[in-house]
Amino acid sequence: MGTGHPVVPTTLDGVSIRLYDTSASQVRDFVPIVPGCVSIYLCGPTVQAPPHIGHIRSSLNFDIMRRWFAYRGYDVTFVWNMTDIDDKIIAKSRETGLPWWQIGYANERAFNAGYDTLGCLPPTVEPRATGHITEMVEMMEELIRRGHAYEADGNVYFSVTSYPDYLALSHQELENLRQPEGEGETGKRDQRDFALWKSAKPGEPSWPTPWGRGRPGWHLECSAMVHKYLGSAFDIHGGGRDLIFPHHENEIAQSKAFGDDFATYWVHNGWVTLSGEKMSKSLGNSVLVSEMVQKWRPIVLRYYLGTPHYRSMIEYSEEALREAETGFARIEGFAQRVTELHGAVEPAPQVPPAFAEAMDDDFGVPQALAIVHTAVRQGNAALAADDKENAVARLAEVRAMLGVLGLDPLDAFWAGPAQGEDLHGVVDALVKLVLEQRQAARERKDYATSDAIRDRLTQAGLAIEDRADGSRWTLS
After folding, report:
1. In this predicted model, what pLDDT tens digit does every residue of 52-105 receive, in sequence order?
2. Do 412 and 320 belong together in one domain?
3. Which end of the chain is more exposed for a tag (fewer CB within 10 A), N or C?
4. In the listed set 393, 419, 445, which residue is the last one of a domain according to the structure?
5. Are residues 379 and 414 in the same domain?
6. CB of 238 within 8 A of CB of 41?
C-alpha cells in the first residue's frame, strides 16, 4: 500500500540533505553510515488506546522524510515498533477486565488502519516488543557483566552514574534529575537509576529470566529491537519531542553501555496541542483518527497534519482544518480542470529545483508547499489564457511535487472509489441538474432566480465557474 506516482529520483551525486539534530542542537549535513543507504528507527505507539491525530502526525512527518530520502536516491530501511506491553496497557487491562494482549492487538490494528487511511507507506519491519524478550535478556546480561546494570528484588536497573555521557541528549544536570518511577521498583542503589526489567506481580504478564519472572521496562524494548533490525549503528532515530527524556535518553545510555554506537542523528517532531496542552490519551484531550476521518477527507487530514514544519507545534482547531481544506481544494481544483480540458497528465520526472532545495533544508515542507501553490497559480493563469502547453507543464510539476509528499489527488490511492468517487458521481449529477435549471432561468432572462440558485450552491460549499462551454462546479 502506498501513495505517490513513481518518479525518477535524482542521483546521489551532489545531493546534500540537512536536518536538525537534537543532540547537537543545530542543523547538520546528513552523511549516511553506508553510502547510498539510510536507516531510520521511529518510536511507535504504546497500544493501550486507539490513535489520536498527534500519533498520526509523527508518522506522517517521518513518512514524508522517508519519501524524500527515497526520491533523492537513497535505499531506505524504515523501522517503527509497537509497544505491546507497558504499565499503561496493564492498567487498561485492570480497568476493563480484558486481557492485555487483546487490548494491544485491537489498538495495533486501529493504528495500522489510521496509517493506511492517511497514506503512510508501510515500514520495512514493524516489530512488537513482546517478540523480543530473548534479545532483551541478552542485553541485560551483557550490561550486568560490564558493570552498568544490577539486579535487586527481581528487578534489573541501569546505573546512570556508570555512564558518563548520561543526559547529553536532553542537556540536564544529573544532580537535579528526577527519574520517573513505576510501581514496585524497589532495591535501587540510586533513585535516579531506571528499570530495565520489572519483577513479576500477581495478575500481570511475565516471562522467565535468570533473575526470576518479570516483564521489560519501556526503554529496554526499543534498544533490543533497534539492535536486532538495524545493528550496532544506524543513521536516524526519530520520535515526538516528549520522548527526549526519559525514553530516548535512557535508550542511548543502555545501548551505548552495551557497546553499540547507536544513532548518528536524533530527529524529533512537534506536538499537536489542544488549548495549549499536548494531545494525550492520558490527559483525555485527544481527537481520535477514527472520528476525524468521518468528518474530513483523509487526504485533507494528511495535508493539515503533514504540511507544517515537522518541528513546529500544531494547535488543533476546526477553523485551521477548514483553512487546510480550502488550500488543498485550490490544488485539487487546478488538477481536475487541466485533466478535464486536456486529458491525463503524468508527473514530471523531477521536481523543480526550488522545491528540492526547500526539502533538502531540514525537510522544509512549508517552503516546498509554497512552490506548489505558485505552480498552481501559474497553471490557472495559463488555463485562463487558453495556454494548454503551460497548463499541462505546471500540472506535471505539481503532481511530481505532491507525489513525494503523498498528496497527489490524481494518484490512484486517493482517486479510487474507496475515497468517495462513487459519491462524487451522484453529487455531480444532482448539481448538473440544478445548473441546467439555472441556465434555463438565464435564457429566459430571469436573473433573480439564476442568482438565487448560484447563491444557494455557494452556501452549500460549491464554487460555480461560468464558461463559454457551460458551467462547472468545484468544492469551494
Report:
1. 999 999 999 999 999 999 999 999 999 999 999 999 999 999 999 999 999 999
2. yes
3. N
4. 419
5. yes
6. yes
263 is written with which cell numbers?
544513532
Domain hosting residue 438, numbered range: 421-475
Residue 328 and residue 412 in one domain: yes
Assign residue 393 the CATH number of its domain: 1.20.120.640
Please give the biggest Cα pair distance in the chain.
93
Number of structural domains (the chain) is 2
Note whether residue 379 is domain-resident: yes
What is the overall mean pLDDT for the chain?
91
Q: How many CB atoms lie within 10 A of CB 308?
A: 20
Does one domain contain both 327 and 383? yes
- Asked if 79 and 125 touch (Cβ cutoff 8 Å), the reply is yes
Report, as an integer, the average pLDDT of 103-109. 96
Q: Cα angle at 48 between 287 and 137, to 5 degrees?
A: 140
Query: Distance between CA atoms of 378 and 364, rounded to whole angstroms?
Result: 22
Whether residue 349 is found in the same domain as residue 408? yes
Label the pairing between strands 26-29 and 18-21.
antiparallel
Distance CA 234, CA 49 (A): 30
Q: Would the pLDDT of 431 be above 90?
A: no
pLDDT grade for 423, boundaries at 50, 70 and 90: low
List, in sequence order, every beta strand (DSSP E) within 148-241: 149-152, 155-158, 194-199, 214-216, 233-240
Find the mean pLDDT for residues 237-258: 97
pLDDT digits (tens, 9 = 90+) for 132-188: 999 999 999 999 999 999 999 999 999 999 999 999 999 999 998 988 877 789 999
